[in-house]
Write a structure and sequence with these properties.
- With 454 residues, the chain is of the alpha+beta class.
- The chain has two domains: 60-182, PDZ domain (Pdz3 Domain, Roll); 186-453, Alpha-Beta Complex (2-enoyl-CoA Hydratase, Chain A, domain 1), CATH 3.90.226.
- It is 35% helix and 24% strand.
- The strands form six sheets. Strands 10, 13, 14, 15, 18, 19 and 22 form a seven-stranded mixed beta sheet that branches.
- A hairpin with a 7-residue loop joins strand 7 and strand 8.
- Helix 7 (250-260) packs parallel to helix 8.
Length: 454
């Protein structure tokens, strides 16, 4: 018994000794923190003492946190308590807003894509428009997070946006009415009379076409249904259209890659300390005998870049179009439990299976290897781009508004039965490459078709 007590006391003294040795370290850390944030504490005291009007301490905390996050990248941000619920709702794919996805380009908050048939789209806001102000607030120094928070709100409420557009001297002003935005993210090439999508762009031989407008929680479930329809029609080629796709949920993008890659790494995330999290393909449910042609443009971002870049690295797809946006960073929502708020913080960058980092930082040059570079570069002119987006928007409103003259019928289909988009320059090239792949299928092993074509 005495031995046991002696051992216990020895253990207690050892723990106390270790704690004692750590005291200088903790004191140094505390002093460092106090020294670093001393000006903030001093400013807080002066504001409370000298400011001309009474001020709520919580407002000061919110302002300080907003300012702190603005010193980082434009994709990080602070979400105050009164905006956290709206932000969480937006991630579910159903929210009150104007249907805009924003990013950062050349130091400005830029429209990546307006949601097809959303309030911003109907008003005429275009990809590439730079946000000048929201609700009268200058957007020059806003983060993307702040801008998105200002756009969210109760359906039926109004918000005013000003944008700068290329070749326009004066800013354009839009008053938009927020509405409940529900993201339909999987679309086909034509609408049938009953509103269902047709996922074939050619019938003889059958060639599939699926347009993914973003990656929401339901994207892969809808995508799998459309794939089943394409396979039921015996299609051996699929054109995947990621143009104007601003991204979305990473796990949905990983599931899509996994549909077409049998084995090996499909994506990695790399942190500041070079900690790597790697994601690999599984053989289950893989469609390795379906050849792919992928369309991208300068507004294909984030998850759209993950899918197209990974498929390209695995030689599973021919990539056609224009260099992508270059938004390859990972944001995590980190709760501030005592303040009942959260930080949206960039914590890592995406890395493709070939080792390339997608992300383009604020100082990146055009000759640096950011974004996804297509195998076959096909530019789309501004007028053709305008007609394409107009056609997409009108198809979504097929049963409520007359189709404009720019929307043509394809293969002599009756306009009263179907609505479709014109075959733009990029889509024509994708269809041409798809037909070449079909012609070559019989002469090549399934896993090397695309690699040899490239």
């Amino acid at each position: 018994m005495k031995q046991k007590h002696g051992f216990l006391w020895l253990l207690i003294f050892a723990i106390l000794g270790m704690m004692f040795l750590q005291i200088p370290h903790y004191m140094a850390m505390r002093d460092s923190v106090l020294t670093t944030y001393a000006p903030l504490v001093e400013a807080d005291a002066l504001v409370k003492k000298k400011f001309v009007e009474p001020i709520d301490s919580n407002d000061l905390v919110d302002g300080a946190l907003h300012g702190l996050m603005l010193t980082l990248d434009r994709y990080s941000g602070y979400i105050p308590p009164n905006e956290l619920a709206a932000y969480s709702a937006r991630k579910t794919g159903l929210y009150g807003g104007v249907g805009l996805e924003l990013g950062e380009r050349h130091g400005s908050i830029t429209v990546i894509a307006p949601l097809t048939n959303g309030p911003a789209d109907r008003a005429g806001i275009l990809p590439g428009d730079c946000i000048a102000s929201i609700k009268g607030e200058d957007a020059t120094d806003m983060s993307v997070m702040q801008a998105m928070n200002l756009l969210l709100g109760e359906p039926g409420t109004k918000v005013t946006i000003e944008v700068h557009r290329e070749r326009r001297e004066e800013a354009l002003r839009f008053e938009l009415t927020r509405e409940l935005v529900s993201k339909e993210t999987v679309r086909g090439f034509t609408r049938q009379k009953n509103g269902d999508w047709n996922y074939l762009i050619e019938r003889n031989p059958p060639i599939g076409y699926i347009r993914i407008s973003s990656f929401s929680p339901h994207t892969m479930a809808d995508f799998d249904r459309s794939l089943s329809e394409i396979l039921h029609r015996n299609a051996k080629i699929l054109i995947l259209d990621f143009r104007f796709n601003p991204g979305g949920l990473m796990h949905q993008a990983l599931e899509m890659i996994d549909r077409f890659v049998t084995t090996g790494p499909i994506l990695a995330t790399v942190t500041r300390t070079q900690a790597i999290t790697q994601y690999s393909a599984s053989q289950a449910d893989t469609l390795d005998d379906l050849d792919l042609v992928v369309l991208i443009n300068g507004y294909s971002a984030s998850s759209a870049e993950i899918v197209s870049g990974s498929l390209q690295a695995h030689n599973r797809a021919i990539i056609i179009g224009e260099r992508s946006f270059g938004k390859g960073s990972v944001q995590h929502l980190l709760p501030l439990t005592k303040h009942k708020a959260a930080l949206k913080l960039t914590v890592a960058h995406y890395q493709l299976p070939n080792g390339r980092i997608i992300h383009r930082d604020a100082h990146a040059k055009s000759n640096e290897p950011w974004g996804i570079i297509p195998d076959i570069e096909v530019p789309l002119g501004p007028e053709e781009e305008r007609i394409l987006r107009l056609a997409w928007s009108q198809i979504d409103r097929r049963f409520s508004k007359k189709i404009p003259p720019e929307i043509q019928t394809h293969h002599n289909q009756s306009p009263e039965n179907r609505a479709t988009v014109p075959l733009d320059t990029q889509l024509k090239r994708a269809l041409f490459e798809a037909k070449l792949l079909l012609t070559a299928r019989e002469d090549r092993p399934s896993h090397s078709r695309v690699a040899k074509r490239r």
